[in-house]
Amino acid sequence: MQYTQLKHKQRELRETFPEGLTLRVHRALSWLNKSEQCDDLDSQFIFLWVSFNAAYAQDTECLNLNETQSFTQFLEKLNSLDQLKRIYNLLWNEFPSSIRVLLNNKFVFQPFWQFQNGNITEQEFKHKLSEAKKFANFALANNETAKLTSIVLQRLYTLRNQLMHGGATWNSSANREQLKDAVQFLSQLVPFIIDIMMNNPKELWGDAHYPLIDE
Question: Using alpha carbons only, what angle is made at residue 131 by residues 126 and 132, rounded to the nearest 5 degrees?
Fold first, then answer.
């Protein structure tokens, strides 16, 4: 499912959407469209992440949540509404090997960089990595879709930070493999998310972050 199909569906259904969902879907689709027009992995990843952000973003300061807690709750709701099990199939049937590689990649594990920057010891980093692997393997072994998706996105959030904060070079060979896997994963996950939201307009998705102000 790509932008063109989703945009057509949005035009057919948008009169039934509450204001918050209307704005979320409109914004998410605009960034998804831009991602599909790009021909480099860095830009595709950034625009896919912005599209994801537009769909789920909450006022985390008011909710007293950090970003990963926020999208974990969002993914749990999505998974419960995913009647076609598309997110489940994405994880367990289409990307199982890529996800395992990603979860074992220290370069998208934030404590690795905390160790490199001298904020934690190597022993602390290795302990955190070991615990994270146990947690991920438990989710894998028990088919916990929402939890595993959240773990994957936490890894991709580190990759997102590297790019958005200038911690990587454009088109660098250093991060190509994880970027390639990330783009392939998000290019399917994000359209599924938007479609599930449109299929469930009566769910409480919340007001759009940074609402449109008419003056």
Answer: 95
